[in-house]
Amino acid sequence: MRTLIFRTVAPFLSSLMILFSVFVLLRGHNEPGGGFIGGLIAASAFAIYGIACGVSPVRRALYFHPMTLAGLGLLMSSAAGLLSIFAGVPFMTGLWVDVPLFGDTVALSTVLVFDIGVYFVVVGSITSMLLALEERSSD
Amino acid sequence: MQSTMPSTTFMVLLLPFFAALFAPVLTRLFKHNAAWILALVPVLMFAHFCGFATQISEGEVVTGGYRWIPAFNVNFSWYIDGLSLTFALLITGIGALIVLYSGGYLKGHAQLGRFFSFILMFMGSMLGLVTSDSFLMFFVFWELTSITSFLLIGFDNKREASRRAALQALVVTGGGGLFLLAGLLLIWNVTGISEMSLLLRSGSGLSDSPYYLAIFILVLGGAFTKSAQFPLHFWLPNAMEAPTPVSAYLHSATMVKAGVYLLMRLNPVLGDTVVWQTVLPLFGGTTLIVGTLLAIRQTDLKLMLAYTTVSSLGLLVMLTGFGSEKAIEAAVLYLVAHSMFKGALFMVAGLVDHGAGTRDVRRLGGLMAAMPITFAAAIASAISMAGLPPFFGFLAKEEIYAALWEPGAWPLLLTLVAIVGNGLMFVIGFVVALKPFLGPRKQALSHAHEGPVLLWLGPVVLALASLGTALFSSLTHHLITSPMSSAVAGTPVEAHISLIPHIGMPLLLSAITVVFGIFAYRQVDRLRSTMFRLLETIGWGPDQGFDQFIRGIVRLSFRVTRIIHSGSLETYMKIIFILVALTILVPMVMFDELPNLPKMPESIVRYDLAIMIIAAIGLFSVVLAKDRLTAIVSLGIQGFAVALIFMLFGAPDLSFTQFMVETLSVVILALVMTRLKLTPTDHRPLHEKIIDIFISVAAATAFMLLLLKTVQVPFDPTLSDFFTRFSLSIAHGANIVNVILVDFRGTDTWGEIAVVMVAGLAILSLIRIRARPAEKIAANDPTDGEG
User: Fold this and answer.
1) Separation between Cα atoms, residue B132 and residue B126, nearest integer Å
2) Is the bond leading into B390 cis (omega within 30 degrees of zero)?
3) Left if phi > 0, otherwise alpha if psi is -120 to 50, otherwise beta: which for B59?
4) Chain centre to alpha carbon of residue B623
5) Do A122 and B657 touch (CB under 8 A)?
6) CB neighbours of B674 closer than 8 A, spacing ≥ 6?
7) If you count residue pairs, one on A and one on B, with CB atoms under 8 Å apart, how many are there?
8) Which residues of chain A does B738 touch, with a Cβ-Cβ cutoff of 8 Å?
9) pTM of the model as a whole
10) What ipTM goes with this model?
């Protein structure tokens, strides 16, 4: 699998895919996309990078253990849900804030935080699975 | 309901649990003297409950509470009447003495702080139990007493015997707790009432309900296990593995009376039926006789007392079930008397053990000079236990005979049972109180000495209380006996009995008991050896039965595990798909719910057809593939085709996800295949393949029919309308699918991502497992030796 072409292209391809996954994640509320799909795209990006260049570059690039990312995601999603309790509304009620940015307003919300959490859980869980499977040579 | 009282009561109910938190720290600071500080907790609670006494003696009740889960009408509420109050006073009063006693008994023990913690937690649980109004709260505290009892019995967790005893107590009382839960839920369902106070006031119609018998059996299941009725009594003597303060407190004075409390509490609504008045005296009477006979056989002071506790509980159940107001009054008197004298006698047994180093009655003797205070407390308590004046036990005994002496064969039989039981308890009482102290002093006991004040304070106070309550009997009746009897009977009851003897049948029966008791006391050694031989010849008891039961369960579960978990993935998959096919197809055929087969549309759009053909080609190449890698990739082709179909029918999100999932599945499957070093080709012989094809076609057909049927049911647009209408206006999102995922049904997604992560962790650890050569999987195979 580790052909020269593949190895050369893979880093660019992976980076583009991760960029695209973030794009899909962020636009998800209004257009097709969202945390789950974004997470899957990012996970396949890491899978491609791993298959092409080996697992250890991926681990280095990720810096954290993918499971840590998944844990962070779950924590973010839970925190996004719990935040509404402090606002005096039931668990998981979306809270919205309009932030002015470059003359435009951007609607930020706990829902977005929740979705980013979903993204991280999916990326983390699937990537850690894939990397562990790809790591067969180290056994 | 007062506005201030409930909240203080709430604090008082929580206080022991708080104290339990701080007990270890205090113990580290003050060693065993922390007992003096910790005993303040029950003393304070005792004072608080004393404050209710006059109010309750005038027939009032104290109630209060907070909403807990309003949606299910579950409250954290308490209800204090005469019955609860007496129990609360016993729990806190004796509790204070026990805390002090524990400080002396376990002085220098490394885990003393933990012990205090457990005792206080138990105290809080027991107090919650007797003051609970709502059923659910009652049940929670009931289970908490079982759990704290488990912790306390197993306190000496290095010894196998105490671990076994703790587990046994937990299994028996916890199992009974499940009965109780079912019983309470049934009452709740039948009456619609979930609070004791309302149930008592409702006048119920429970005894006429068709479910009465079921409720009765379930409630009895709870009460008889907790209160150690024959043949479920065996856990109580085994619980004597616990340190003596535990035996004195939980297994004589308080916890084991929880079952009696339950029966007394429900007596106004469940009693007054033939079943109640037959079954309760029958089991109670049997327990009384069996308990005393087994007690005679023992030589260990604590075990003798434990078996008489069993018989006393039997006596209480018998009296509660007898049905007359007098019998209830007798039960109340005896319950109070028993808590005082039995608590004291247990503490005496501990003192003797502490001072002389043994509890074996055959090796004890002549300790009177060395342990005068202990002896005094012991003799006073034994007199109360024997039912002699001037102690409270006398009043109880007289009232028992007054209640049971009625015309008829059944009361006569129960009177005889009571005489034999009381006579034998008389014997045990004096064996415990006299044998260790009188006679020549044994050589081995020369170092025997009196215990410290922490140890003898408890029995002395309890003996004095026995005396005081009897001397001022009219006050006792006014504050304790009458309110409690009224609560149990459901109608106002006045108690009058006093120490002044009243010539009549009860006194004569008492005299007979005493004569019988003295006679039996002189023959106690012969009785003991006779009982010993008798039990030897029987050779089997419920205690062994328990072991056989547990062993049977372990064997059974082992066998079931062997059958269900064959360890072969193929078998698992086969079972799953066969069951899927059956669960869908069988009801469909049985209830004649098969869908109408749709007609082929007149004209099929050409690219729809093309995609379907691609999917079919993908499937066929999976089946026909020469090696696994081809099959995996072909499966991906089929998946992509499905994703395209989703796209064409206007579900871009779904299609998008399907593409990604298919891609990743192919990658993961390919990796798994190389990782697990599978053979590159299918190894199944032809007949297996045919069976598998059959299963897969069946499952697929089932799904197809289910989907067709679902589509044919008229579509209910409520939800989709709701989402369309509010997606943008409330949740600020135009993509409805995503809004549903992260907002409307966010909690679902939250649960799902947690599952994703856990699944990821599980897969990760599965991959990381390295096969170890020839390791036995089931290390706890019951067939290869016990233990």
Assistant:
1) 10
2) yes
3) left
4) 55
5) no
6) A136
7) 135
8) 28-29, 33-34, 115
9) 0.73
10) 0.91
